[in-house]
Amino acid sequence: MARMADQPRFLLLADVAEILNTSVAQVYALVRRKELKAMKIGGRGQWRVQASDLEDYIQRMYAEADRFIDDHPFTGRDAEVDAEVDAEA
């Protein structure tokens, strides 16, 4: 992934959470499970994610979703379950 000059190379976990529309705690869990590559810097151990590693993670998740969809064909029951999940959200 080519980096734009105005975009930082490294992102805070809060930045990643905003991009993925999730919580910082969820991003931290992804890092701790080694699903999302990150590094710890400084004396206080602040986490940083390289923008290209975030993009790699996103592409892997798209591929994983595609495999799931291929392995689990859509049925009428799926629509009912999806409607229930949407109602709970």
Description of the structure:
With 89 residues, the chain is α+β, with helices and mostly antiparallel strands. The chain has one domain: Multidrug-efflux Transporter Regulator, Chain: A, Domain 2. It is 57% helix and 12% strand. The chain has a three-stranded antiparallel β-sheet. The longest helix is centred in the last third of the chain and has 21 residues, at 51-71. The model has no long low-confidence stretch (mean pLDDT 88).
Largest sheet composition: 3 strands, antiparallel
Helix content, binned percent? 55-70%
- Beta percentage is 5-15%
CATH topology value: Multidrug-efflux Transporter Regulator, Chain: A, Domain 2
SSE arrangement, N to C: EHHEEHH
What is the top-level CATH class? Mainly Alpha
Oligomer: single chain
Please report the total strand number as a whole number. 3
Structural class: alpha+beta
Instruction: Sum up the overall morphology in one term.
Output: elongated
Short note summarizing the structure:
This protein is α+β, with helices and mostly antiparallel strands and 89 residues long. It has four helices and three strands; from the N terminus they run E-H-H-E-E-H-H. A three-stranded antiparallel beta sheet has the order 1-3-2.
Throw out a few tags for this protein.
single chain, 89 residues, alpha+beta, Multidrug-efflux Transporter Regulator, Chain: A, Domain 2, three-stranded antiparallel beta sheet, 57% helix
Give the helix/strand layout.
Elements: E1 10-12, H1 13-20, H2 24-32, E2 39-41, E3 46-50, H3 51-71, H4 76-88
Antiparallel strand pairs: 1-3, 2-3
Helix pairs in contact: 1-2
